[in-house]
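Action item from last meeting closed. Structure (145 res):
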């Protein structure tokens, strides 16, 4: 045979929570609460609005400094590029310039002073440059007889 168990439903009670249930609730609340973070002395006594304002000012200052740093780095890169270009131009000019001939020795001045002076004048860099410029101008002018 089968036995059946009949359970009467308990009426809804509007009774206060028992001590045991209150203790469980308090323990759960304590576990969910975290310890308060330590607040720095510079924030002590300040309202939330003041702290937010301080944070925004700090972010604005960092943004300004980051912009200045970016501009300084860009200027430094540009200066490096200019210096590199100048050095390369100087090296090319030095490499392209004809080697200077040694100054005539004293023996040539004493043996044949006229030829030694003429040779020194002809080999002077300014005279050579003037001669090249004159030849360039002459080549650009068309002579019609």
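Sequence:
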């Amino acid at each position: 045979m089968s036995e059946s168990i009949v359970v009467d439903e308990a009426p809804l009670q509007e009774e206060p929570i028992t001590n045991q249930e209150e203790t469980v609730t308090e323990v759960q609340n304590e576990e969910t609460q975290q310890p308060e973070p330590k607040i720095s002395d510079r924030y002590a006594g300040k309202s939330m609005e003041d702290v937010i304002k301080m944070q925004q000012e700090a972010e604005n200052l960092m943004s300004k400094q980051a912009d200045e740093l970016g501009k300084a780095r860009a200027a430094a890169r540009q200066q490096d590029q200019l210096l590199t270009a100048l050095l390369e131009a100087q090296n090319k000019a030095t490499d392209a310039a004809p080697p200077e001939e040694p100054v005539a020795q004293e023996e040539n001045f004493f043996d044949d002073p006229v030829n030694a002076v003429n040779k020194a004048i002809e080999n002077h860099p300014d005279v050579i440059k003037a001669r090249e410029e004159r030849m360039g101008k002459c080549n650009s002018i068309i002579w019609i007889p």
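Note appended to the action item: The chain has five helices and no strands.
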